[in-house]
Amino acid sequence: MNKKLTIALKRLNTILPLKKNQDNCTAEIKELHQQILRSFVTNGRILTKEEMVLWVDDIPEAINVLSQHDMVTVSGSGEPIGAYPFTMTERVHEVHVNGHQVHAMCALDALAIGPMFKETTQITSQCAVTDAPVKIEMSGETILNLAEVQDVHFGIAWDAANAASCCADSLCLEMIFLRDTETAQQWLADDSDGREVFTLQEAVRFASQFFVPLLP
């Protein structure tokens, strides 16, 4: 992994230390978190509270711990609705995996699902600047339609991170696909200090390094 990716990975882990937070949980809550992630691929949705009792006894406390550590997102009524990279909330990044259509929190999250689960995925999204469609087919970390998307870039506006808000409602909204090099460079030029762009293959590696460690 090149220096640019190493620095970016460290920076994202500082903002959203998912692996560190997961490791700081009890074994039961860590297992629950992993089962929640798997449920999106197995069932196309988050685990229900009735299903969570298979792994923990105190569901409200477990959800509270996961929410406090920003490992799951919850609705206004406290219902679990997401776990990075997945969300039940409709977002622009749709991923077809294992016969299910799921939503990803952001562009980086969409790229992570194939590597995390060693699955074939089809990502349907769009350029955040031009609204041009972005369709990426993957098998694990391999981009299957690279010839079609090799000029697509991934952008991240680091300054969007907000300590007063969960990452899903702040930084994730500024982790985006950009349709080509020209668009990426124009987007970067608008805030060269606070933004960063990556090639699509760099972004896949970034996503894999960040998310794969969450599952055994």
Question: How is this structure best described in words?
Answer:
Helix 1 crosses helix 9 and helix 6 packs across helix 9. The mean pLDDT is 96. An 8-stranded antiparallel sheet has the order 1-2-3-5-4-6-7-8. The protein has a 3-stranded antiparallel sheet with strand order 10-9-11. Strand 4 and strand 5 form a beta hairpin. The protein has one domain: Beta-Lactamase (2-Layer Sandwich), CATH 3.30.450.410. It has 216 residues and is α+β, with helices and mostly antiparallel strands. Helix content is 39%, strand content 22%. The protein is built from 9 helices and 11 strands.
Overall mean pLDDT: 96
Shape descriptor reads: globular
Order of helices and strands: HHHHHEEEEEHEEEHEEHEH
Q: Order of strands in the sheet with the most strands?
A: 1-2-3-5-4-6-7-8
Derived structural class: alpha+beta
Topology (elements, then pairings):
Elements: H1 3-15, H2 18-23, H3 27-42, H4 49-52, H5 59-68, E1 73-74, E2 80-83, E3 86-87, E4 94-97, E5 100-104, H6 107-117, E6 120-126, E7 133-139, E8 142-143, H7 146-149, E9 153-157, E10 175-178, H8 181-189, E11 195-199, H9 200-211
Antiparallel strand pairs: 1-2, 2-3, 3-5, 4-5, 4-6, 6-7, 7-8, 9-10, 9-11
